[in-house]
Amino acid sequence: MKTVTYEGMTFDEYISAGEIAQIVQDVAQRIAADYRDKQPVLICVLHGAMFFLTDLMRALPIDCSVATVHLQSYDGTSSTGQVRENVPLQTDIRDKDVIVVEDIVDSGITMHYFKQILRSRQPRTVKVVSLLSKPSELQYEDAKPDYVGREIPKKFVIGYGFDIHDLARNLPSIYALRDNG
Ligand code: IMP
Ligand code: MG
């Protein structure tokens, strides 16, 4: 089994690069079917979702544009319970069909917070696509993603954009913290 170590913690390969590619294709097909005659704006939630965003965009056979926002709620392996908007959304989304591209929805506080910001900018529609979600942890009903690549149990993951103190994003697979319990 492939393992990596960060900060003295062991992580085991959990979703391989090949499986991620398949998940991205599946999600892209579902989105393409719903947005066939539209030109959505994909808002990438930096930094975690940048890998998913670029792969997803290339898998989408529809016209779409990109925008970014930098939100932060995690520190290390746990949520701070607060969302920081480090770099706000600069793009005008009024009357646009918006798809927020997120790496993972955990408690949902990030999406709950960002949806409030989006609403004030008056887009035509808003949907959320998340590569992963941890449904057992969801605390905000309005944060539930419209498209999910894969649901996972409560695990801390790194790789393919997911970080631990800003490292490990460049691992091609997703790794999960080993449960020693
Ligand atoms: P939420 O706000 O609690 O839903 O958490 C969502 C944000 O926390 C995501 O955008 C990630 O940046 C981060 N996050 C949640 N779970 C993990 C994880 O397992 N690994 C790395 N980052 C995570
Ligand atoms: Mg994030």
Give the helices and strands, then pairings.
Blueprint: E1 3-6, E2 9-15, H1 17-34, E3 41-46, H2 50-59, E4 65-75, E5 78-87, E6 97-105, H3 109-120, E7 125-133, E8 147-151, E9 157-158, E10 174-177
Parallel strand pairs: 3-4, 3-6, 6-7, 7-8
Antiparallel strand pairs: 1-2, 2-10, 4-5, 9-10
Bound molecules: inosinic acid (IMP) and magnesium ion.
Residues 45, 48, 73-74, 79, 102-110, 156-157, 162 line the site of inosinic acid.
Task: Walk me through this protein's architecture.
By secondary structure, the protein is α/β, with parallel strands linked by helices. It has a single domain (19-152), classed as Rossmann fold (3-Layer(aba) Sandwich). 22% of the residues lie in helices and 37% in strands. It is built from three helices and ten strands. The chain has helices spanning 17-34, 50-59, 109-120, and strands at 3-6, 9-15, 41-46, 65-75, 78-87, 97-105, 125-133, 147-151, 157-158, 174-177. The strands form two sheets. A six-stranded mixed β-sheet has the order 5-4-3-6-7-8, sandwiched between helices. A hairpin with a 2-residue loop joins β4 and β5 (78-87). α1 crosses α2. It is globular, with a radius of gyration of 16 Å. It binds inosinic acid (IMP) and magnesium ion. Magnesium ion binds next to loops.
Number of DSSP strand runs: 10
Class by alpha and beta content: alpha/beta
Shape: globular
Small molecules held by this entry: inosinic acid, magnesium ion
The mean pLDDT is 96
- Helical content stands at 10-25%
From the alpha carbons, calculate the radius of gyration and give it in angstroms. Answer: 16 Å
Number of domains: 1
Low-pLDDT stretches are: none
What is the top-level CATH class?
A: Alpha Beta
